[in-house]
Give the backbone structure.
Amino acid sequence: MTQYTWIKNGLVIDPANDREAVGDIFIKEGLIVESLSDSEKAEATQFDAKGYVVAPGLVDIHVHFREPGQTYKEDIASGSRAAAAGGYTSVVCMPNTSPVCDNAGTLERINNSIEKEAVIHVYTTGCLTLGMKGEALAPTGQLKQAGIVAVTDDGLCIQNNEIMRRAVEYATLHKLPIMDHCQDGSLTENAVMHEGEVSLKLGLKGWPRAAEDIIVARNIILSELTGARIHMQHVSSYHSVELLRIAKAKGINVTGEASPHHIEFTDACIGDYNTLFKMNPPLRTEKDRLALIEGLKDGTLDCIATDHAPHSPTEKDCEFDKAPFGIIGLENALASTLETLYHSKELSLKEVVALMTHKGAEICDLPAGTLSVGASGDVCIFDPDQKWTVDAEAFKSKSRNCPWNGRTLRGQVKATFVGGKEVFRLR
Amino acid sequence: MVKYSITWTYSQIMSRVLTWEKQNLISIEPLSLTEINTIFSLARYYKEGIESGQLKFDALEGRTVINLFLEPSTRTRLAFEIACKRLSADCISVSGGASSLSKGESLKDTAHNIVALGADVIIMRHSSSGSADYLSKTVDTPIINAGDGSHAHPTQALLDAFTLTERLGDVKNKKVTILGDILFSRVARSNIHCLLKLGAKVTLAGPNTLVPKEFEAMGVTVSHNLKDALEDADAIMLLRIQHERQTSTHFPSIGEYTTSFGLNERRAHWIKPNAIIMHPGPINRGVEIDSKLADSSNSVILEQVKNGVFVRMAILHLCHAAHTQTQISLPK
């Protein structure tokens, strides 16, 4: 039996098609259609979205679902449900699993899980180098054939410039974007937070912006040299924003993302060594935070990505310098981003939706992020003004390492549809 | 936390009632000036008592104090052990290599085990900044920080300030220069907070790689010119160059440090004739301080060590009493 879905009376915001008007969305056999016939409407599953925003399903090009190898933190089943609860319908997983995804066999294992367990579209990436060691190229072509959408050594930035140059050059042969976690390791040895007044006060080893800036500059130069599409993950430094701005003005093929935590928090949030504010790159200063927002406003930074990085409560419950880097954010990213960008009047609702949908999708060439006729019927329905209090204990994610826990935010996801099928409904 | 009072009888401080609410001493920041003076008063009481021949006090009689020293220490550990014994506590020291932490046990589990064994106070030294604060949130037993990473060493700062006030009287507006490896020093950080609370003017001196300008946000002056830093100082606190914490990138060599920043007799002419020279130890003679200066009449290095026992007795007594919420009258 054909499946029909009719989402009625919502404020449809579809930035890719410059659409922002009250209307209906129709989905037939998983795809967005112009309209349904009266008989199809009669059969359709209906959702009354009156008073809500109806947006394309959100897209996050930077998540860690920990499968295989660290499924006590997260797996594809729990991660994809967490994503659905946050309004996300397409996510891109990083390859730093255990083992890392540097060969088609491991990728097939991941693909099998996605096939069986995922409730949303889960895309994969492959390592740039074997074992993410930064020494020898991974079989990018085979990985591409097996379905990856980008290559990255996320978490372990390639330090050797010759290897990086060849890796990005080779990825372009396979028309894949390169996503890079920009970090010069020689400047960050044993460092656990941003270097500045707060690190000095806490007596914690800090790392300077320069660790990121140097690699962002290198990547810009290598992109110009090779023509490779290099995407800078979770940009955290104001200087890196400036570098990207210059590069883009010159027409160099680079992009950048900002994460919800970097545009909301600063290093001062660490307070009394709160490990929920320990992530990599680290939270920086107000100057950086404002520069990131400015970068999102003028297009220097292309999209919002969460860097959803689950860790078990035990792993985060320890001395600050021993805790792993990373926080989770999928289930509250829309709300916190709306607070930081929309309710603070930095950007319009449509602009925020663009940053969280088609802008990220375009970086990885994902068939996602729009409500165009013929697109997958992926929809996020939310109330931008509804207040709710983040309760990490109630998360679908297996992990609880969420710095927003206990905060009251505006912007609540009411329902999420993937291919016209409801995958999340707020109860 | 319920307020409670300590009353004691002693010739000079007869009938004085002091209030103390804190069962933990993690860092200097949360202490008020009044609280610092309370510690000093009690330390003075113990000092006078011991110097007049009373070697034992019963403040912690029957109590068990665990000295959890996960980093090497001689002075601090001994001073705490002696302080415990003077207060009649049973003091047991555990060192890093001999603890289950070396077998992969978490600090949290180690702490819970120590509490289960019946510890009344835990004194901890640990290489991680923030570990003492973490421990205090993990267990309800009084925690005394004996040094956490590069963050804090509050008992050292208090004994330093106690020694300073003995020598200089009120330290308000006195110039105190801290010279050496500030970046990695928990002693420096705690001293900065303590001295500023007491109204002193603090100057930090040393090479820029070990004394970054950002320290000025704490309310101190940073100087990379040794003459400027030493001139007019009422007290100089020297710090050891901590090889074990630095990477080799922060300074070329010990020899270079001595040449540029070591306190020698020539440079000692820059300081006031009656200025005092302090060092938390362990000192490296001929490196940060000339051997003669370390033994000169300006030096109070051994007085610091002595006072370390009295100040720690006061802190142990206060924190334990705050936890048990008991009113204590000290015997004559």
Summary: Chain A has a mean pLDDT of 97. The interface with chain B takes residues 189, 196-197, 200-205, 272-273, 314, 317-322 of chain A (CB under 8 Å). DSSP finds 13 helices and 18 strands in chain A.
